[in-house]
Amino acid sequence: LRYPDRVRRRRNIVLSLMAEQGHITRAQAAAAQASRLVTAPNAGMSAYSPWFVNVVRIQAIRAGIPVTRGGYIIHTTLDPVLQTAAVEALTLEASALENQPGYPHAKYRAGGGQKGAYLQGMVIAMDPTSGDVRALVGGRDYSDSPFDRAIDGKRQPGSSFKPVVYAAAIADSLSPSTMFADTALAITLPNGTVYSPANSDGGFGGQMTLREALARSRNGIAVQLGLLLGMDSISALARRMGISSRIAPYPSSAIGASAVQPLDLVAAYTTFANLGTPVEPRFIHRIEDGNGTVVLSREITALPPALDPRVTFVVRDMMRDVVERGSASMVRQFLPASIPVAGKTGTTNDNTDAWFIGLTPDLVAGVWLGFDKPVTITPWSGGGSLAAPIFGRMLSKYYAENPQLVAAQATAQWEAPIGVVTGEIDRETGAVADEFTPPERRYTEYFVEGTEPVALRADPWKLFGWGPIVY
Hints:
By secondary structure, the protein is an alpha+beta fold. The chain is about 30% helix and about 15% strand. The protein has helices spanning about 5-20, 25-35, 50-60, 80-100, 160-170, 210-215, 220-230, 230-240, 260-270, 270-275, 310-325, 385-400, 405-410, 460-465; strands at about 75, 120-125, 135, 180, 185-190, 195, 205-210, 285-290, 295, 340-345, 355-360, 365-370, 420-425, 440-450. The strands form five sheets. The chain has a five-stranded antiparallel sheet with strand order 3-2-12-11-10, with helices on both faces. A hairpin with a 5-residue loop joins strand 8 (about 285-290) and strand 9. Helix 4 (about 80-100) runs antiparallel to helix 12. It is elongated, with a radius of gyration of 26 Å.
């Protein structure tokens, strides 16, 4: 696959020797030498998954199992349908971008020889309950560039890191309806320089709720939260959620300036799927030798709870707004409203990285696109326009192949845990809606009990005004 010319030369030498030794005729040798080189579809795999297979091989060898010698049966977590959907979605959307008028970079060409010097991407999909990695794509062409960008790469996550910041804020007794100002900031750093975060649209939106700020991905408000809560606290939460990379104690880290491993970041989102408890990624269920004896078994590994279930429910619901009416609304072009989806887009400075990490009740999945040597992808592309459609397209095919999961969504919607309070809020002011609030500004908000507006709190003294309780 990687060196077709070498393979062709070697094949032709063997054919010549077979003719010389009388195994075939000269005519047969000449005909075979003139034929094109043929390889097995998907590199001989049921689904094109060389990056996944490489991870499994490395993990087995590190565990002391000499799988490269053969004779072992390896039971992995891969879902061939989802893996194929991930490869196809990445290929289709990346090619579509390359074919847009004005695309400024070299385009991918099948056949290799470019050494990865074109738009790259990675896709990871996990079962949030077990941590089983169902799909992993580390690039666009393994034979041309086998580097695994999902495992071995480190990239700035941009705004896809913000849910960690907002989770810290909700855990610190702020509420989704708390008002903050999306305004220009000038923060003097210890070295004397002034840091002034900007938004992707170049403007500022004024006063808005935290829910609105996350849906619209306003950078200044995330930075204010980082300063208010302390980046050390946010970094500690990121570690509890499974992010092993160092989150630098700078204001810019609140909007994803600290590079992380993509697999770590996607796995951290299982915290939101599991109401506070993250799980580690798993690639291997078990390995058996030729006699059927299990020589390696990998159990589900849940990390200690990172967040209160009530906090994670509220933040997850805030991330649903990102999909329903925010920066990731393109996901809904592929998935019906009956399937709950939450997530967050991410776009780094100068549009060098495009992210979307999302979750449904069945899967947590992340998509990244960019160049190995960071450069602006295009001035018009970002996480919402480039990465979110790959997520949507992949899951659309997955649910089409698993209709029983779609049917189950009707009865398996995300339900609020005990200790979450609801109320009707004015989207514009963050206050409890009243008779003067227009219908289009009303929505149902969720609060961790004790952080809801005073008007929504139960007054136990009212019980005595209602008269005696009759049994």
